[in-house]
């Protein structure tokens, strides 16, 4: 497999990603348009139907291959098929119907009366699960060792329950029906483990790990991003009671876990996250209207994460922001994602970053 892989220094990249997970090294994920695209990818004519553009395995693979053959993967970036059918599509395996749009997917609530709703159940015969697996299996068949096939952005805990219930009803449930919420979150966790394992057994690569479709991560063993975006709307005490137990169980079960911290409203939960020993790393995404991830405004937050014993992932960094960021944070436990304008610019940046390793 290795000689065919669309990244010549993959062995070195894997070692550096492993060091980042252990908070011992720096990971740089820099991509750019390739000067000489790899020959062989077929054109991908999009289906007229928006649902088919999301769910047709052949189109998804052709489209991704065309993008990969035109991309230069520098540092610890690597080619992989993003198999996601919308962030949080685990909800569609247990009752929510998706509504596909050009740029996003919405999930329709399916629990109208929580007092009468049965326990959540998953069946591998679920049509939405089978659609997801068809994309994964087509990717595995077509990849032929040239790229990895990622586990989709399943998501978990309250973020799945909000898709099944709706945001306002769920927030009321946290107060009026805490037992209902706790029971459903436990069920969602069990289903998450089941589904993840089924997918992991398919996509597990020759190096014993997996790529994950969100945030460009790879790790040896079970590797995933975890999150709770609902946390922006709840108190730290509610986060402690309703989220931390399931999140801790997920991080303990995974070999490599990255928490997606989304927006300034969620920063109040950072101490709870840092207290989860099993959590390995934290990624920060500023909300719209705030400076991007490479801004000095967030350097204090990154230092807080690092001093709390977690690795940090800094996303959406501009090329000119990379060196000042590393001057401020150092190289141990820092993962930077950056899109360069050209392969030449990306190679020059990669060379400059070497002194921080």
Description of the structure:
The mean pLDDT is 96. The protein has 357 residues and is of the alpha/beta class. The chain has a single domain, classed as TIM Barrel. The protein has helices spanning 10-21, 50-55, 57-69, 127-143, 157-165, 167-176, 178-203, 236-253, 270-274, 299-307, 322-329, 343-353; strands at residues 26-33, 71-75, 80-81, 97-100, 105-108, 148-149, 209-212, 217-220, 223-227, 256-262, 281-285, 311-317, 334-339. The chain contains 12 helices and 13 strands.
Condensed summary:
The protein contains 12 helices and 13 strands. The protein has 357 residues and is an alpha/beta fold.
Number of domains: 1
Strand count: 13
Structural class: alpha/beta
Tell me the span between the first and last alpha carbons.
Answer: 28 Å
Under the CATH scheme, the architecture is Alpha-Beta Barrel
List the helices and strands and how they pair.
Layout (H helix, E strand, L loop, with lengths): L9 H12 L4 E8 L16 H6 L1 H13 L1 E5 L4 E2 L15 E4 L4 E4 L18 H17 L4 E2 L7 H9 L1 H10 L1 H26 L5 E4 L4 E4 L2 E5 L8 H18 L2 E7 L7 H5 L6 E5 L13 H9 L3 E7 L4 H8 L4 E6 L3 H11 L4
Parallel strand pairs: 1-13, 3-6, 9-10, 10-11, 11-12, 12-13
Antiparallel strand pairs: 1-2, 4-5, 7-8
């Amino acid at each position: 497999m290795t000689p065919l892989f669309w990244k010549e220094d993959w062995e070195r990249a894997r070692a550096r990603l492993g060091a980042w997970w252990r908070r011992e090294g720096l990971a740089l994920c820099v991509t750019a348009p390739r000067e000489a695209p790899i020959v062989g990818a077929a054109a991908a004519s999009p289906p007229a139907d928006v649902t088919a553009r999301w769910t047709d395995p052949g189109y998804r693979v052709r489209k991704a291959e065309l993008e990969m053959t035109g991309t230069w993967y520098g540092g610890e970036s690597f080619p992989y098929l993003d198999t996601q059918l919308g962030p949080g599509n685990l909800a569609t395996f247990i009752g929510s119907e998706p509504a596909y749009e050009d740029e996003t997917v919405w999930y329709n609530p399916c629990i109208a009366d929580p007092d009468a709703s049965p326990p959540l159940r998953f069946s591998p015969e679920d049509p939405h699960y089978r659609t997801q697996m068809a994309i994964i299996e087509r990717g595995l068949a077509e990849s032929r060792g040239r790229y990895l096939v990622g586990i989709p952005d399943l998501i978990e805990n309250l973020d799945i329950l909000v898709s099944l219930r709706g945001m306002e009803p769920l927030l009321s449930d946290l107060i009026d029906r805490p037992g209902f919420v706790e029971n459903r979150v436990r069920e969602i966790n069990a289903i998450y483990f089941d589904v993840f394992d089924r997918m992991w057994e398919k996509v597990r690569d020759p190096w014993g790990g997996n790529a994950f479709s969100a945030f460009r991560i790879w790790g040896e063993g079970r590797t995933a991003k975890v999150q709770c975006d609902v946390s922006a709307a709840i108190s730290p005490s509610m986060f402690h009671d309703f989220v931390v137990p399931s999140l801790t169980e997920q991080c303990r079960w995974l070999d490599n876990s990255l928490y997606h911290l989304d927006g300034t409203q969620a920063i109040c939960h950072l101490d709870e996250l840092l207290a989860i020993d099993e959590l390995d790393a934290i990624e920060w995404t500023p909300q719209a209207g705030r400076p991007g991830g490479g801004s000095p405004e967030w350097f204090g937050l990154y230092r807080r994460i690092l001093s709390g014993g977690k690795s940090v992932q800094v996303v959406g960094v501009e090329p000119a922001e990379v060196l000042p960021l590393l001057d401020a944070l150092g190289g141990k436990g820092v993962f930077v994602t950056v899109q360069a304008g050209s392969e030449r610019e990306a190679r020059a940046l990669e060379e400059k970053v070497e002194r921080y390793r």
